[in-house]
Amino acid sequence: MCELLEKRSSRPPSVLYSRSPSPASRPQSSRPASRATLVTSCSPIQIVNSEISCQEASSDIHTDLFPLKDQDVLLRRGNTLVVKLYTSVEFTGSYTVSLVFTPVYRSRERFAEFRAAGIAKTSCELWLSVTIPTNFPVGKYHAHITLSLRGYLEVLTHFHRGAIMVIFNPWNSEDDSYVGCGSAEVGHYVLDSQGVIWRGNHRQKTAMYWDYGQYEEGSLESALFLLSPLTADECRTVATVTRCLISKVCDSDGTGVMKASWTGRYGSGVHPACWNGSSTILQKFLHTRTPVKYAQCWVLAGVAVTLMRALGIAARPVTCYNIASCFGSTLARYFTSEGDFVHGITSDIVWVYRVCVEAHMRRDDLPPGYDGWQLLDTIGSPRVGRVVGPVAPKAVCEKATNKQQQLPYLTGIVHTAISADIKYLRVKAHDVASVRKAAVALVERGTVGASIATSSGHGAASLIDLTWNYKKQQGDPEPTMTYKMGSFPPPSRDCSFSVSTNDNALLGDTIQLVVSISNQGGMLRTIDGRVVGKVVQYNGTAVRNFFTMQFTGTVSPGQDASVSLPIEGKKYMRHLVPQAMLQFFVCVQARENSQMFIRLHDFSLTLPKLKVTCTPQKVALGQSARVRLEFKNPLASSLTRIVFLVCGSGLCKQKELSYKRLLLPAKLVTMEFPIRPYQLGDSRLLVCIQCDQLMGVRGECLISVTRDVQYNDNNMCS
Q1: How do the domains of the chain map onto residue ranges?
Q2: Distance of alpha carbon 584 from alpha carbon 566, whole angstroms
Q3: Which helix (H) or strand (E) holds 88?
Q4: pLDDT digits (tens, 9 = 90+) for 62-108
Q5: HEC string of 248-306?
């Protein structure tokens, strides 16, 4: 045994002895735990109190912003734990001290034990210094301290009143959450409490600010609670911890954080478009221990990132555009000879976008070369009905080559979701029986997985393109396919086609849809075209058709031609539903040689902005500031039951402001309210509008919180 030094100065002794054995190899005490408090010999000495703290300053290990209860201790793996024992009287002689960790949310059995022995001189205080191993299971623990004195049969026991919480350490190179020495990614993807989630479509990417709030009350506690199904050994690695968190974010058995829904009926809960942060969700879940209603993919991803960052894992939301959900390596779409798109024949769909999560980790369970960012899907796959990930981007790229090894967590499904081909089959109108005899008219490659993007951090709406991290770059040699993509080569063509729209159109504006045809051949081509406009959910589910138009024209050899189709706002506005977008099915065919062009063109309408201003721009910590909201009704109808939902980490707790009157068309509503920031630094105040007619309208403003500022009347931000 190592010598345990008594306290002789203000600094604690060096680390004496620490270990965290696996359950199979941990030492078993010769004295049963149930007899630890039995007194077998009278002793005047008792442990009257204990103090447990982290030797490193909380600001140095980036735990100072977490709200902790009295005597709770939060530290990262690899940090040093200092234990002070106070006895009722001074004593001398040899002794043995044991520090036992018992999980709070898992089995109550003794898990980890740290021991030290020494000889004390006259003292009423003992200090024990323990370094937490870098593979120690993350979790929340009770601390049980025992003190054995030579000459006494009695074992002195003490239960520390606070909890000890151990989380990952991305700044320690021996921890499997390590991101890299001096890497800016650590600060952005572990410490930032706000960020950007990308939505829209692959051409019109729109940024939505999200308040992760990992330092808010309830976030860390929820993350630790959700790890309760794991064993101690499973809590050692980032891969198993993130997989557990992802499986619990989207509820499937009544124990998850949120209930996902795309039905459009949210009367018993909150509309998914009205969430703008994670902390309120996690506080509700922790209070009720029941799933919070309702969520969709970006909400689930935002909550998952919060849980991972709270545990010290670098995490970020990743948006996959045109992601396939199908039961095979190819995806089928059906249309009629008249050029109408047919729904309901197949369950194969293409999401306009789907938000997943990337977490940074070392993969000791895989061959070398698969460390780094790993993809996890919060919703899962319909093919297997379970969680997908963590999956390394390198493994997804290699899935299309002979290099692919058998890797865990459904790597093949991720590859199919971003690389599947789309085959268009022609059926007879209103004849379901003709599906079996449907002929393949065209196969479209490269549309699925058109773009994969994430935010660059810094809290700014700057985009990082991750597409070629997951897909084979253009120009590379064609790999040997693992999955047969189908032998459906498109026919040779001497005409090319394209579809474009005015992508900056606001809600209610006229949409200009342009179909362009280029004839590179030596013969005149007669073109027949049909355009069908429909309202769709972003998950690919059709709502209803609102527009149909046919056109015919000729294109001379070597010439270009175009057809412009204006679509007025009144044609689509009355068909819109919250969170929906427009999709145009364009089918064009040349009469002379039956060349065909088919395209599904996604279009997102730009919503009006909610103007948010704060006076002053720089606010002293703990001082009040005034926030002003302004919004003009863009619709031709009145808005009813308007509620402004406000949140901002470090600025104010979530609040709801109701506007109890009707907001008539083209009328302006203004509201003011105070805030009192409680954390230093720059943070955004996020506001979104909830009403019966309009969802998804948001606004934000950046506010700087300093220790002391001088007020300036011109200090404004918007």
Answers
A1: 33-167, 184-470, 495-603, 611-706
A2: 13
A3: strand 80-103
A4: 899 999 988 899 999 999 998 888 888 877 778 888 888 889 987 65
A5: HHECCCCCCCEEECCCCCCCCCCCHHHCCECHHHHHHHHHHCCCEEEECHHHHHHHHHH
